[in-house]
Amino acid sequence: xxxxxxSGRRGFLLAGGALGAGTLLAGCTSxxxxxxxxxxxxxxxxxxxxxxxxxxxxxxAPAADHGWLAAMTTNARAQAEQYSDVxxxxxxxxxxxxxxxxxxxxxxxxxxxxxxxLPKDGKAxxxxxxxxxxxxxxxxxxxxxxxxxxxYRAWIGGDNYGMGANAADFIAAELRRRGISxxxxxxxxxxxxxxxxxxxxxxxxxxxxxxxxSVSRRVAADFTVESGQxxxxxxxxxxxxxxxxxxxxxxxxxxxxxxxxxxxxxxxxLVGGAGSSTMMKHIQADNRVVKATVLYSPSMASxxxxxxxxxxxxxGMAALAEHEIPRSMTTYSAVVTKANVEEYLDLGFSx
Length: 351
What we know:
It is found in: Cell envelope. Belongs to the bacterial solute-binding protein 2 family. By secondary structure, the protein is an alpha/beta fold. It has 2 domains: about 55-160 and about 300-315, Response regulator (Rossmann fold, 3-Layer(aba) Sandwich), CATH 3.40.50; about 160-295 and about 335-345, Rossmann fold, CATH 3.40.50.2300. Helix content is about 45%, strand content about 15%. The chain has 11 helices and 12 strands. The strands form 2 sheets. A 6-stranded parallel sheet has the order 2-1-3-4-5-11, sandwiched between helices. Helix 2 packs parallel to helix 10.
């Protein structure tokens, strides 16, 4: 790959900055008349861990029928328990959208101080969240975004496009390391109708294209063990040769690995998605086809609770100069490999 014009220009600017730093500094400090007071620089400060006023956080999420979803609720509860100034009002998870709407409305009627909502369906929950905002209850929207920005005060979620792009980069590097040219690259996606799946696939395609590679075979599962096993079996049966596979989700990856073992295939390597402890242990042992997983960590639920607490207490983030909580935060999809897996084991969740 050739260097981009931006990277070349950045190198020039860095070099110029190193040569002229003293001159630039002198020029900046001499612009004001002698004796005139300079404006103070804005900086972060405070201690977000220090107790604030007592607040009640309402939490709503879908049923924990999936390892990642279960970990989201577990992480949120555990984070709330760390704060002596937080009362955590957890509703029962449900995959019935109407029931989740009712749960959110109940929390609003209870006049909680702030809401954290991971919607089953962002579009369907938008009006309920907007009613909370209209009632003066700030909403932290987690992962699956509402249809209107007026339905939430802050959003935190994963980088689906970045997941795909980072998976592509790892696969391209590993193929080069193995000396494989003209590779057959397969993709086992999640539910195709979901925007998050579409974003992951788009990032994967775009990432591969940066390395002059493309997806050769693609199937779509449904984020379940059963669908992962079924679609992986179909993929393997239809493909005599595969060099690399990216599987979007480590929960469905349990089924994918079962299909691979049943087929007796091991000529390829597999990259997972989300970062389950099961896949991380396979990566650590290095005795299966799975060689990496791209994080989409449920730790975002812990961060959502922390943000909700600060919102309800009228505080900003101590490490940032802004006085208010940011409007949105996107987590990073790090690639976990044998070289760094020990650093990320604490983020793993049970599949």
